[in-house]
Amino acid sequence: MHESITIKDIAKALGFSTSTVSRALRDSHEISAETKRIVLEYAEKINYQPNPIALSLKERKSHSIGVVVCEVANNFFSQAISGIESIAYSRGYHVILSQTHESFEREIVNVNHLASRSVDGLLVSLSSGTINLDHFKKLHDKGLPIVFFDRIPKEINTHKVASNNFEGAFKATEHLINSGFKTIAHLANAAHLSISTERLAGYKAALEKHQLTFTEDLIKYCGHGGMVFEEVETAVKELLHLKNKPDAVLITSDRLSTCCLTILNHLGLSVPDDLAIAGFTNSNTAELFNPPLTTIRQPAFKIGQLATEKLISIIESKYPVTEFTTQLLDTEFSIRSSSVLSRKPALPDVF
Predict the structure, then answer these.
(1) Which residues does the UniProt record annotate as the domain HTH lacI-type (predicted)?
(2) Same domain, 127 and 185
(3) Which of 116, 160, 175, 252 has the greatest number of beta carbons closer than 10 A?
(4) 285 vs 232, which has greater pLDDT?
């Protein structure tokens, strides 16, 4: 039967005390550089692997990170999670995933469950149903490291990583304007989410720059973010029944974009001739849609990586962390057929 090598075995072989070997493996400042070199070289030679259970008990760490997102199947979040895992596993941390499905109640249950399992920290993207942050504030006040990404709150002082949503929405809206569209609608997630407020601000800024009037009727919010098809269908039909019908729409998420395309197809409307579309999406098949979709793509993988690096920096800091940053990464804008006009007939009055 194979027996794992212990710190005692290394100490006996090298003639050091077990405490000296332990400190050397932990890169303690109390141990000389030469002793560290001898211990680490020998540990590598014999392929020493620390016992994770013993290590977690001694350090009071689980070497695990909890991740809270709305939906793993979402293109953005699946890519962000890959980024999270790429950093976490390389640094010796396991990743525990949980999905809220845009439910505030489920978010609370998931967060409390992860905390009860003694995760070393949390990476969180808020659910669209989140109405207050008390469950996060309590854990944050108790010292649990938390980093927010993509959907970030203002109220909690910690590291945050997201896309430059304002810039992405501004570029896409300006493109639609420059393509000849003058009545541009905006289909968004829940109004209170950071991604919604930032993208709305970019949309408004583009309209203002080009002296187009902002109209509240052209803004439709879908609180479930496209997870309830009927909600999106109602929003799209309301836009199309407006007296001042939109000739284009800026859409703020994967699911909303695909739902909108499906609805327009069911109504017998053509994109972009009846309604042009530019949308936030991280789908790798956007160019295969019918028509190919003009997209604002977020650097999801990099966002996941940076958020994880920030969280681990808090977890492993020897001193309380009091200075935090909010990093906004540039989006990538790709123009395709869904926003390039070939002809422009009037929309039919009845759908």
Answers:
(1) 5-59
(2) no
(3) 252
(4) 232
